[in-house]
Design brief:
Helix content: 25-40%
Oligomer: single chain
Number of domains: 2
Strand content: 15-25%
Number of helices: 6
Order of helices and strands: EEEHEEHHHEHEEHEE
Largest sheet: 4 strands, mixed
Radius of gyration: 18 Å
Strand order of the largest sheet: 1-2-3-10
């Protein structure tokens, strides 16, 4: 898939290794640059800093980005799935999709609570069926041996691995797809790749970003 990109973009982080640039409609990301941070910066550039739901300008200390398909159902951190949202609206939306939240807002009282319960049942059914609930056109199964990654030392990897292991044991699926660039270099999902290799899993759900490339 192609993610939504502006015509021009140049990012420079705190170190000389942190940078990203758009050239000829392709986003090039220097190795060592935080992928999520690049997606956040691009989203604000593309969609502004007014809440997508209430329309109010985001306060600098309370600005947030909403995952239109929530992380809890596999929503990736890419521009196609991000939108500016104030903290209040983001909290009210919680684990609902954008469409579910819009329907929720049209209801009142007990109808809202019943609708929220219905949504949670739907999400749980999705986890039991295939692990996550995002558009099928976004991802496909990708051979693990084709994924190019490097060893990552992150204090959160152990916790993420344990959480993933518990999810897989319960549902027999992954909780989200990994994200790779057009050459197969891993952008997001190191824990999933590590888990799959340890368990001898040959194919994993993958989002391939055809207009993104890592630079080394």
């Amino acid at each position: 898939m192609n993610i939504v990109l502006p015509n021009k973009f140049h990012y420079k982080g705190n170190s000389r290794h942190e940078s990203a640039v758009i050239e000829k409609e392709v986003l090039y990301i220097e190795k060592g640059t935080d992928f999520d941070e690049i997606m956040y910066q691009l989203t604000y550039m593309l969609k502004g800093r007014n809440c997508i739901y209430c329309g109010r300008p985001l306060e600098s200390k309370r600005k947030t980005l909403d995952h239109l398909y929530p992380r809890s159902i596999g929503g990736p951190t890419i521009t196609n799935n991000l939108a500016p949202a104030c903290k209040n609206c983001n909290n009210r939306k919680s684990d609902m999709t954008e469409q579910e939240f819009e329907e929720f807002c049209r209801l009142n009282g007990k109808d809202r609570e019943e609708f929220r319960k219905k949504v949670m049942r739907k999400h749980e059914n999705a986890r039991q069926s295939h692990g996550f609930l995002i558009p099928k056109r976004w991802f496909g199964n990708f051979s693990l041996k084709e994924v190019i990654t490097f060893i990552t030392f992150d204090e959160n990897i152990s916790k993420r691995y344990q959480k993933l292991e518990a999810f897989y044991r319960k549902y027999g699926n992954f909780d989200k797809p990994i994200v790779v660039d057009r050459n197969g270099f891993l952008l997001d999902g190191f824990g999933i790749v590590l888990f799959a290799k340890n368990k001898g899993i040959k194919e994993i759900p993958t989002i391939i970003l055809e207009n993104v490339q890592k630079r080394f």
